[in-house]
Structures are given as C-alpha cells and as structure tokens.
Amino acid sequence: MKTSKKPASSSKTTKETRVEIKPAKGRPMLTWVSKKPLRHATAYPAQLVESFNAQSKIVNRKSEIWSDWPKDLPQSGLLFHGDNKDVLAYLLANGFRGKVKLIYIDPPFDSGADYVRRVNLRGGIETGRLEGENYTLGEQIQYTDIWANDNYLQFMYERFLMLKELLSEEGSIWLHCDWHKSHHLRSLMDEIFGTDNFRNEIIWQRIYAHSDAGRFGIIHDNIYYYSKGKRPVFNKQYRPHDSSYIKSHYTLVDAKNGKRYRLVTLSAPGSGPARKFGNKVIEPPKGRHWAWSQKNIDDAIEKGIIVYTDSGQPNIKQYLDDTEGTVVQSLWSDIEPVNPMALELTDIPTQKPESLITRIIKASSQRDDIVLDCFIGSGTTAAVAQKLGRRWIGADINKGAIQTTTKRLQSVIQEQIEGAKGKTQSLPGMEGEETPAPAQLAFSVYRVNDYDLQIQHNEAFNLAVEHLGMTRTKTDAFFDGTLGKKLVKIVPFNHPVTPLDLEEVKKELNHRPEEERDIVVVSLGKEVAIEAWLEEWNKLRKQGNIPNRIEVIELRSDPKYGGFFTHEPAKAKVSFKRVKENVEITIDDFISPTILERLKQQNKDNPLFQPQVSDWRSMVDSVMIDSNYDGEVFNITLADVPEKKNDLVEGKYMVEAKKGATVAVKMTDMLGEEVLVLS
Are residues 38 and 183 in the same domain? Predict the structure, then answer.
C-alpha cells in the first residue's frame, strides 16, 4: 500500500502575465476613500490538481462547440481554487476575454463568516456544528479585512471591471445580493456597465415571513440584471398558471377531448383585408385586422378549433395544455428556498435553490454557451449549467466550496449518464421539456496562486508580524523590523527562501559595516540549498567573535512558529486482497488530525465533555474507487456516498480489476480533505 500525491501540473500560463483592464466610463460614479482604478491585473500560473472524466459515446457533441475554447485547456468544465481576482486574471490571459455569455455571482453580502462551511460528523455524533476548514491566509484577507465598507467597495469594483472584460457583447451579468449592500453594488454596476445596460431588478421572495424587531420583516433578496451590449441573449420564462387563474380564464371544456380551453380573438389592432373562413368571407372588426394568415386560418378550421360568436366573429380555442404558462415578471414569489430535506442540500449555508439558477441560466443563455460563477459556493450554478447543456467555469477561494462542488458535479454527471440510459434526471423548472444533452461529462480542478505557498507579500505581511511578535521598523528600507535584539527580513511569500535571498541580506550587511546584530530571515518555505549556505555563513560566527549570525524561520514547519501554517494531513490504512478476478478492499482505519484538533479547540472550555469519535467512519464523507488508476485521471468505478447525514460509509468493497492494475481509493473527510491510497 502506498499513498500518492500527484504533482500539480501547469496549464498555458507558466509565469506571471500582465493583463490590461479597461476603465469604467459610466455615470453616476460612486466615490470612497482610497478608490483606485484597476488598469491591469497579474495573471498567475494555474496548477491542475484533479480531473474527473466520464466522457463516453453517450455524449456525441460536435467539436464546433469548442472552437472558441483555449487549446491548452481541457474541453470540460473548469473549477478554480483561489482568489477570484487571480482566477479572473488567469481567464483573461488564457483566451476567455469576451467569450462568457452569462455571469451569475452571489458574493458575500456582509459577513465572510456566512461563507464558511459548517458540518456535523456522520453517525449522529453530537459535535454541535463543526466549523469547516480554517481560512487560509488569502481567505483571511478576502473574508475579514474587506468588510470595512471602503475595502468592500474596492474589492467588488475590481472584480466587476474584470468580469465585464470576460463578457461577450451578447452576454449579461446577474448579481445576487440583499439589503446590506444592494444600493452600493447597483451604483458600482451603473458605473461599470452603464445605466443604459441595466435590464431588471428582480425581487426574489425567498421566505413568507420573518420576525424583525422594530421593522417590517425582510423576506426578499435583490438580483440585478445588466447586459454588456444593447442586444443580450434573453429568453422569456414562464411559470405554470395558478389554480385561481385557471378557474377564472379557462372556463370551457371541449366535449370531444375533455381539455380545458378559453376563446381568444383572432383580430389585432390595425387594418387589413378580409379572410375566408370556410365558405364565408369575413371582414375584421372596425380598426382591427386578422392576426393570422389565410393558411393558418385554414389549418385551424381543419383542426376544428375555430369557434364563432353569436355575432359571427371567429375565435380560436386556446387549450390550457398548449400554453407555456404565465410570463415571468420581475417579482419572483414562486421559487422556494432549498428545502432542508432536498437532495440538492449541501453544507454551504448560503446555498441557492436550483430552480432559481435554472430560470436565470435559461433566460440569458443558450445551449453550449459559457456560464461563469466566481463565487461558486455550494456549486449550484455549475450543477445547473451542467444539467442544462451549458459549458461552465466556477471559482472560489474557500476549499470547502471546491470540495462540495466537486462531489456535487460527480453526482450530476453520473445522473446524466443514467438519464441517457433511459432513467430520468431532475431539472427544476423544466418539467415536461426535452432534457438537453450535456456539453461535457468531465471537469478539471485547478489551483491558481496557491495561498498555501504563494501568498502575496503585502497581504500576508501584517499577519506574519503579529504572529511572530516582531516590532515593525518603518524607517529601514531593507529590514522589516526587530525580534528582540535581532533584525528581521521577511522574504516575499510567493516563493521559498533561496540562496539568492540570503545573498541580498549579505550584500546589505556589507553596506552596514557597523551593524552587529544577528539576522532573522522569515519565509513560508525554503530550498534545500539554504542549509549549506547557512552552515558556511555561521560556522565562523559560532564563537561570537564575528557578528551577523543568520537564522531562517520557516513559518510552515518551524517548531516555535509553525502553528501559523502547520497542517497535519489525514491518513488512512487500507488493505487490498486479490480474490480471483476481483480485489477486496478494506479500510482498516482513517484519522483526520484536523477534525480531532477542531473538536478539541471548539470544546476547550469543557474538557470533560469532549466528543468521542469511536468509529473512524464518522469522519469520512465519501469513498471513491478507481479499479485501474493511471496516475492521471481518477475514473470512478465505485462510489460510496451515504445519502443521509447520519449514515456511514461501508468501509469494505469488492471491485473487478485486471491483474497488475493499480487500484486507487480516495477518501474525503467531512472537512473536504482527501487521502489517496494505491494498491
């Protein structure tokens, strides 16, 4: 048995790339302290970390739908883990400028805490709500510091500018928000997209009642719909007639077929010639004309759906079954929030219902179009786009959101494969409509500017200073501060410390012959060659006769300071046994130090009441098996994903596998961490 961690591979962008961003030209303009335009953005490399590929003969789509797709990226759904500013810059640098047809975003409204996943362990263990993965350093910046109003406005302003660059001329953006920031966000969108391109404010009544002290209950969200150009894609949407409308309008019943119908006039305002109705030539009423051509009238007579009034005027039978329903207007009161018992329910607390996203995607895109959501959260946009035959791109800075979306999309694609075999799939809002073929049965997960290793220096600096307990020195152009009596130099966190970094310290010390203090170099990681360099530098300084001894604090693993970034990965013990043509797989044990530590921290005030995890399966969310793993693409042969929250994975499996094939078992814990074990 061996544990495998596939090295990340890069896509087209292998180094930092500068992408230009057009300025906002709309009016009015919202002003805030430190508002600054975004003239360019830096595109960082993207590393491929996971692929899910279920492509088969079931999907036979013409290659033309991918003709606008970058050649260096897989023809599949794309899911990015990283700050969405970095992701958007990457997309702009890699061929997606002006190609996205629909953008739906549901950004943080007021508190980043709302966007942290909270889960319970399986098996009904009473843990309370176990908080999801801690924020990475990048998430701390995005989901804490931005909530000062001015920072939030700058945060959203920059992303709106980049999103506009990605939209096609026929494209549109739908922004989901609530009362906290809606007035500010609409002003930003007016400035960037232009007031002439404002299409609608949608009011979504998400609940029926809410008890708010001293005010009327807030029961709705706002959704702003803007286009990029003058002629965006837009398809009218319909909802079923309610029972009172049917009773009041469709009062007649056809004696031959039993269908409900109503009579609708065949005339419309204007003027026009008489038409022949059977053996009669009938003039239209004064000031009106016949809305149908002679051919359509003849066809209607043959079908027997022309009815004459007492005055002899023709009407058409409009059957209830033949109508699409009531045209949807700007007040959406017919879409319920996610039901707590629904299969689509995830652990992301801000999840939006599939029926809501279905309406938006159907309204502003066509089959095969590209749909983008850079605050993917629970993955609803990607899941619905997949079901509706669209290509899709998703992104989120929160790893829990990426894990939730990944698992959800695997289920959707499996459902589509079953649907192609004659089984049905759930498509809310499309009851009775033809199920569209999927644009792809695959998706790839990328990491952009990994915040575990490539944190931007300016963003991380203050957190590192606080964590080390160092004193900041703003008057020194080279050293960043002091730690006790030592000088401190913080190496930019977008790379590990190298001998070249230490040579820079050496060069600076040569310019300061009177400086006798020792030096501390702080980094997130370090190259192996560092140890030899330090040994050579410090060997003459061991006796204290020569000043400027240098030490390196590696925040990622240093015993004293490593708590800043330390992470002990989950581990599993798995047994593989050959049984004729099959392999018997037994998961003997699984441990997630992160979950155990989280439980300990959350209950530190009650040490006598620590939750006990007696069954390792309580910590496992799902088990996936690939019976012929090639080291590149994980193809699921068997999936064990308990349907109910309190159900446990089986832990013992039998799969058919060729002799010599590598069997891979992927276990995902309740916080989204994965462990891959190979036979």
Answer: yes
